[in-house]
Amino acid sequence: MINFLRKVAFIPIFFILNLDCYAITTEQLHKTFLQAEQAINNKNDVEFLELSSTLVDYPLYFYLRYQWLLKHLSETQKVQQFLEENESPLYAGQLREKWLEYLYKNKRWVLYVENHTSIKSKQLECRYQWAKYQSSEKKKVLQATKNIWLTGHSLPEDCDELLAKFKQSEFLTQKLIWNRFKLAIYRNEETLAGFVQRRIEGDIAQADARKWRLLLKNINLISEPKFLKNISRIERADMLVYAIQQMVTKNLGVAMKVWDDQKKSQGLSELQISKVERSIAMYLVFSKSKKAYQYFRGLKQTDKVIRAWEVRAALITGNWVLVQNALNKMPEEEISMARWQYWQARTYLQTNQFTKALEIFGHLSKERSYYGFLAADYVLKGYALYHQPIVVDDKEVNKLLKTKGFAVINEFRGLQRIAEAKQYWDEVTSQYEKLDLLVAAKIADNWKWHKQAILAVARVKEWNDINLRFPINFEEI
């Protein structure tokens, strides 16, 4: 400590003065930045331009420009310049979104189409196609509108004008109308189904549509023997499949009885039968029914998911021989997983194969995982945590802190804009390779930004720094 004080005592006085000057400069920059923001909010462009001209080299200068442009979306050239420079994909994206909305409302169709980059919703898709309809080939737009129309949900108001043109075109066929009607049924959108039904042509199709809507309102109608009469074969099969899948979530016993009574008489395909029986099997095991295992055994089509749930169904029975039978169906790549190795060891334990059980438990206990910890309890071992702190060089930390991206983050932090700082962190680190991500993780951990630190190490699959991955903020309490 004495040596440290001696060193501090001999720090040159000019260096201390320089630090004070830097502090004042930073404080003044923050003050000017906040004044520029206030000028934007006050719509005082003259004051803003005067203040911002002194901040051209300030890391958050782009952020000031972004805020000013949000209130001056008519400044096409300046907006385009900001977007082209793309100083921040995050803020450029947000500005583009607001600008496109402005262009659309002001019917600047050509600019809207030229600057549209991505379609995130039906609303934006409709806006884009409508803008194209105003400025380019209408036929191509109407053809593309088929994909917009084909949905089981009601479409936003921004689609109305486009859909009005589409409904008058050759591209709206009876097949498309029927497909949307079925999508509305499957999405439980009764109002939309009724709306679409008005466009269905033909007595048979109308009769099928009426039955579908009755079934949507009262799923129990499927249990009436005469309900499926006098409708087309394809719709009869689809109605039964749909109804059973809905019923299993509400009354599993009734659903199973109706299924057993009708599945052979409605012309179902193998795929449809498999789909329903899979649903029944899953809901049996969800409800912890001891009948589940036998139902799983009867399934003709199995996959990884079904094999996993068959083991769980066998566990519900409490019969370890059945559990072993279910485990035996798993291929090597599945049974070798820690979860199923644990249950294999438990099965050996319950069937008096103690040597085999302890061998698996011993192997599993070396893993840092949920099942590894459970196995450790069986063999009376401590948990294998394998804590290995991430060590980064101070030079690498300083190098990263001096980058333009971290300069922005630090300025946001200095202004107590923590949400903005973390958003910018996500943007900057999304481009990092492994070493920089590890350095960034340690910086974030030091700042107590635990979420950012954990996500950073997860991206590069570095799992061994236990303190970083599982922070304890209030250990002293």
Concise account of the structure shown:
The chain is mainly α and 477 residues long. The chain is 68% helix and 0% strand.
Largest sheet: none
Strand and helix order = HHHHHHHHHHHHHHHHHHHHHHHHHHHHH
Give the structural class: mainly alpha
- The parts where pLDDT drops under 50 for at least 5 residues are 1-24
Rg: 33 Å
Would you report the number of β strands? 0
Outline type: flat
Compute the average pLDDT.
Answer: 91
Query: What share of the residues lie within helices?
Result: 55-70%
Commentary on this structure:
The radius of gyration is 33 Å and the shape is flat. Among the domains are: 12-115; 336-384, no CATH class; 394-469, Methyltransferase, Methionine Synthase (B12-binding Domains), Chain A, domain 1, CATH 1.10.1240. The protein has helices at residues 2-9, 13-41, 45-52, 61-70, 76-85, 89-105, 109-115, 122-135, 138-149, 160-167, 174-186, 190-197, 203-217, 233-247, 252-262, 270-286, 292-297, 304-317, 320-328, 332-335, 338-350, 354-364, 370-378, 394-401, 404-414, 418-429, 434-446, 450-459, 466-469. It has 477 residues and is mostly helical. Helix 4 (61-70) runs parallel beside helix 6 (89-105), helix 8 (122-135) runs antiparallel to helix 9 and helix 18 packs antiparallel against helix 19. Residues 1-24 have low confidence and may be disordered.
Give a quick set of tags describing it.
single chain, 477 residues, mainly alpha, Methyltransferase, Methionine Synthase (B12-binding Domains), Chain A, domain 1, disordered N terminus
Task: Describe the protein's topology.
Elements: H1 2-9, H2 13-41, H3 45-52, H4 61-70, H5 76-85, H6 89-105, H7 109-115, H8 122-135, H9 138-149, H10 160-167, H11 174-186, H12 190-197, H13 203-217, H14 233-247, H15 252-262, H16 270-286, H17 292-297, H18 304-317, H19 320-328, H20 332-335, H21 338-350, H22 354-364, H23 370-378, H24 394-401, H25 404-414, H26 418-429, H27 434-446, H28 450-459, H29 466-469
Helix pairs in contact: 2-3, 2-4, 4-6, 6-7, 7-8, 8-9, 9-10, 11-12, 11-13, 12-13, 14-15, 14-16, 16-18, 18-19, 19-21, 21-22, 22-23, 25-26, 27-28
